[in-house]
Structures are given as C-alpha cells and as structure tokens.
Amino acid sequence: MICYSHPEKELMYHLKNVKEIGLSVFEEKTLKSLNEFKYILETVLHYHDVGKATKFFQDYLSASIENRDCEHSKKLTSHALLSACVGAYKTYNSISSENNPSYWAILSFIAIRKHHGNLEELNNMLVISKNDWQNLEKQWQNLQCGVFKKEDVDFFDLKNIIEEFLWEKDTLTSSIESFFLLNFIFSVLIYADKTEVIIGKKNFTQIAENFYDIVDTYKIKKLIQNRNSEINEIREQAYNVCENEVAKYKDEKIFSINLPTGSGKTLTVFNAAFKLLKKEPYLKRIIYALPFTSIIDQTEKVFREILEVRGINPDKYLTVHHHLSEAKIEMDEGYIEGEKAQFLIENWDNPIILTTFWQLFYSIVTGKNSQLRKFHNIANSVIILDEVQSIPYKYWYLIKNVLQELSTFLNCKIIFLTATMPLIFENDEIISLVPSDIRETFFSKFSRYKIINELKDITINELLNIAINDIDENPEKSFLFVFNTISNSIKFYKLLKENLEDKTLIYLSSNILPVERKKRIEEIKKRSDGKIIVSTQVIEAGVDIDIDIVYRDFAPLDSIIQTAGRCNRNNRKEQGLVKLFKLTNDKGKHDFSYIYKGLPINATNKIFEKKTEINENNIFHIINEYYDEIKRNKSNNESNILLNALENLDYDTITSNFKLLDEPPSFSVFIEIDDKSKKLLKEFYNILKIEDVFDRKEAFLKIKSDFYQYILSVNLNNKTKSYFQDLQDIGGIKIVSSDLKESIYNDETGLVRELSIFI
C-alpha cells in the first residue's frame, strides 16, 4: 500500500528527500565536535515521520483533503510520538554502550517528538503516559507500509528500552553542550522537513574566491576622491591595522574592533570578515547583526554598493532579515515573493546575512521552532555584532558564556564592533584587532567635539531661552536637540518653532511614521548649514548626519557618546559642542528617570561628578571607567537563571525570562497619509477577504514591507486604549483612515495627543 506524508507526496519519497537535504546541510559544515554523530542525525531524519504510515494518519489525511471530519481520535492520528519512539529506539541500538546510547536516544526522541512544535521544559518533552502507550500500541498494530522492517522490532521490547533510557534524562543536564546539540539536531530536522515540502531541493549560493578583496575594490573606486583628508587617513590606518591583525590569528574565536565613531568601522569590519573567510576555508558565511531595524538600511546600502562595484548582483548573495524586511528573494535566476520568499529569508541560506540582534540571539537562546530553523546555518560563520553596547548589562555574563560555547561548537568567529566597548569579556578572553596602544592613538586623534556638563537641572522654558540665544549667536551653525521622551521633544519643538518663525525646523522621533522618518533623515543629510533638528534617541545610532552643536538630555554615557557621534562627525569645522542638561518637570523630577534607571545612569552621574568637560580624545579612558563601574556593581542573577535553564534544557524558563528588549505592551496603528498608503490599505482590505489562511498570508507578505512603513507602535495603557478603542480594527491593526488622520496624526510631530510616554 502506498502511504502519503502530505497531499500527493509519498511518504517514502518524503523521508528519503528529507534525509538527503538534512545530510547535505550537515556535510557542508566543518564542525569538529559534531562529526561523530552523523549517524544519529541520519536516523532522526529518516524516521521523523514514520508514524504517518498508520491507517489512522492515512485516513486523517484523506479526510482533510476531502474536507470532511475524520472518524479517528487526534491521539491516534498524531504521528510525532510514534515516530520519536521508533527513531530513538533505532538510535539507541546503533550506539555502542561506551558512547552513552541513552544520551543520544533521548536527544533523538525530543527532536522528533517536537518537530512540529516548540521545545519545552525537559520533563514535559519526555513524559509518556499509560494512555499514550495504549494508543502507541494501536498505532503500531495499524502500520500499513514498509517504511521500516516492523517485523524486526518487538513493540514491548521497544517500550521497555524507551522507558528505561528516558529515566536517564539527567545525562543531558549540567552543560550548555547538550542544549546546543539538541538545537542543532532539531534545527537540521525542521529545516530539511519544511524545505522539502515548501521548496524541494535547492542549490545554495557560495561565496566565490573573488569576493575576498571586494572591499578593497570598493574603496579604490568609490572613496579615492576623499583620500587626502585627515579623517580618511585615520580610517585608512584603522582599515589596514585590522587586516594585518586578522592575518596573525588561527584558532582564536572572539575578536573586537573598538574604534571611534566615524572612523570607518563598517568598511573595516566588512574587510576583516572577508579576509577571515579567505584565511579559513571552513568559514562560509557572514552574519552582520545590528540592535535596531531603524539602522539596517544604511548598512544594507553599503553592502549592496560593495557588491555592485564588482558587478555582483546583491540579491543573489545578500539576505536582509528583520520583521519589516521585504518578502522577496532571488532563486534560480528569477525572483519569488510571498510565503516561499519569507521562508527562504528565514532560513539564512545566503552567504551574507544582514539582521538584528533580536533575530540572531533569539535563534540561539530559544526553544521556538520558527527561530531554531536557521540555527544550524550560524555554523562556520563570521558573526559581526555592531553597536554591541546595546546588549543589556544584565545579560553580559549570559552572552559571554553562550558565545564562547557557540563559537567552539559551531566553529564560528565573532567580532564585536563598537566605539564604546562593554566589558563582556576580560582582556585575555577577546582578541582586539586594534591593539591597545594603537587604539589609544586613534581615539586621541579625534577631537571633533567636547561634551560640556554645565546646565544641570533645567526646565524646558529655561532650556528654550538658552537655545534661542545660542541659535541667534550662531546663525550659520546646525543644531540638534535630543530628548529622552517624545512628549517633551514635541513640546520643545513647538516652543522653538513659535520663537523662531524664520527658521526651518525638522522633527524626528519614533512618533513619526517610518516612511516620513526616512525622508527627514535624507533632508537632514542634504541640507548644509543652519539645520535645527529636534529628536529623541532615534537619532543615536546609524543616522549618518553631521551637526555643529548638540544639546542632549542626560542619559547613560554610552548613549551620550552615540549622540555625540553626530557632532562634527566629518571633522570639517571647528570643534563641535555637546551640551548636557538634566530636564526637570513641574514636580522637580528628571525626565531621564522615566526612561533610564539603575547602574548605567548611576555610573554616568559618577563620571560627571568629577568632570564638567570631556574632550573626544579622552573618551577611550572615560568609557572604560564607566564600564568598570557597571561591571563592579552589576548582578549576574538574570544571566545565571538563564544559564541554568540552558544547562537543564528548560526551554519554558528560557522563553519566559530572556527579554533582549524590555518593550511595554503595544498595539499597531496604520495611518493613511498619502496615495500610496491609500492603495496599500485597499490591498490590505482585499487580502483579508481571502478565505484560505495560507493564501492570505502569502498575499500579505508581498506588501508587508511597504505596509509597515505606515504603521506606528503605540504603548498600551488605559488612556491609549480608551482613545483608540473606537477606531476600526482590522487584522489586529487599528486603522486611521484619511478622514480621521488630521485629528490623530500631525504632519510635523506625528501622533497627536501625548497620552503616555512614547520612546
């Protein structure tokens, strides 16, 4: 009898193809610690769906195709547990006693049992009840097709062996290695299983030898006109130093590039990554991760230009993956869109991946099926962590341990990239690609700005008077005012506008729709002198603008330095000024206290208790002092909870406790502001009328990237809930149509009515 795994797909062929895809994925990797368990992986792949060979599942499949109810219970039609028992039994009997067969059998059992869901707490994944065994026996008796030799296996022998080795679950706990082993097996299985069904077999793009010097080519062709400036001489030195340092190291895994803002870190790290790929043939991929989606566009633009200068199609080699990325990808000399494209993007098969910290770390510290599918593709990668200071200090110890294990287990190289290097690793645990003496020299050469801490506590009206006088005295200079809360940024913008009617002001924050935010950033870049910008922290990282005088509300030192990086960025003029102030409200409470608390703000206060001015050329020592203070006083409690959960395969605790971004509850609002948004909204209405859920998802993915350019995330509280409750809700998104737009969204300052603190 022919059995089917999916409609019109024979089970035997599905199992065969999944095994071939999974093994091809495994065999392309160079993983020192994994070579001995190829057979375990092969067994898992081959037996992952054997439970579909029962009469019960085949009847269920026929019923679902014919859109009718199935007569059998869900317990009998399910296939994962039976498949897990067979796969684990086969694994157990293939491993010699001295190699701990129980350990490998349990890993096989979990991977197969959970391959249609998420990984959970260990005991929940291993429990088999008396009722389960009764159903398994019925399923065994109703196996219909020869996906394996049933007659060679006695069901009660299988039951006894499984119950015996499941009692030995403690063999899995006590080290992170079991966590990574299970995640790797699970990742290859779910990747191969879903790829076989959705895409079929696929040839993967590899980095060719002529890639290794493409950054050199880009610099020669694109940057030669600026080569004589002092700042570009420093960038060139940094570029060459890092390339030379890369050549010195063989087995080292974790590196850092710590250079001042504006010193060409992006090109320097791209080049270092490509040189590592050239030096170590086992390295196959570059994964470039950034903390925020808002700063990815600029990095993507540089990546694309680097490839295009050499006549290379970026779409063939580069995958951009974050929650707003376009669901479109090149495949077989053409482009595909929608769900298939989204699936391929999420697989990370291309040799260059540009993504967020969220996507990367939630593919490592997770039990989620959809996120673990790409885990195996982290292997043999150069992982670049840009703006690494954005990682919360409460996770430093966790990230340190995870990256140390990961770099060895998956044979990766990791590069930390930042102007403000947090003390996640000790000096002897990380290799600096900019040696300390040279690094100090680089920092000392930059004196583009100085930070002045003289304004202390100040009201918004007092700040306004100071700002107006400063602008009047410096009419040719550009100004940037950075606030911690959107409410005060809007208030200050309006006050400034009332008093400077002859000036053009630009407002920028997350209160502005993404589509408009991009336009304003481009406008800021194009305008020369006399710019006046009012913003929030959204300006801090990745926004490549050049301002003469910056006013910054008090914040942690690394955040202040990020803002300062926009001041006299290209060293074109006299030294720029960054003026700190502590904005207070009517109750005398500091505005920064609504956003920042704890060690970082305390450490910053301690720094500025002793200093009223900091020149950029002293930042290197000051930032080390700042991070020393944090490291001395921080607690590892939250990291230890998660490390303990990793070691004990407690995926439930991992899921509930790992919060890379502490975001308040929010809801999405779509705002119809122009013809394009009107067209997108019409398409969205039509998409929601599509009955089939998969077709509906497919259609939405094609417009998702553009659609989200018109969406704001609004903090959920009693005021916002009350204010927005009467708006039309479609697909979980509140809709502000054009006739309501004027009362809800202001063209200059964004969302109207400050109902809470938006950050």
Describe this structure in words.
There is one protein chain. This protein is of the alpha/beta class and 759 residues long. Helix 29 (675-688) runs antiparallel to helix 30 (693-707). The longest helix has 23 residues, at 176-198. The chain is 48% helix and 14% strand. It contains 32 helices and 25 strands. Helix 19 (396-409) links the parallel strand 9 and strand 10 (413-418). Mean pLDDT is 87; it is low at 325-329 and 754-759. Strands 12, 13, 14, 15, 16, 17, 18 and 19 form an 8-stranded mixed β-sheet that branches. The termini are far apart.
Supply the key terms.
759 residues; alpha/beta; 8-stranded mixed sheet; 32 helices; 25 strands; globular; disordered C terminus
Average pLDDT taken over every residue = 87
Q: Compute the gyration radius: what is it? A: 28 Å
The number of helical runs is 32
Quote the distance from N terminus to C terminus.
62 Å
Question: Which term fits the overall shape?
Answer: globular
Helical content band: 40-55%
Major sheet details: 8 strands, mixed
Strand content: 5-15%
User: What structural class do you assign from the helix and strand content?
Assistant: alpha/beta
**Poorly predicted parts:** 325-329, 754-759
Number of strands: 25
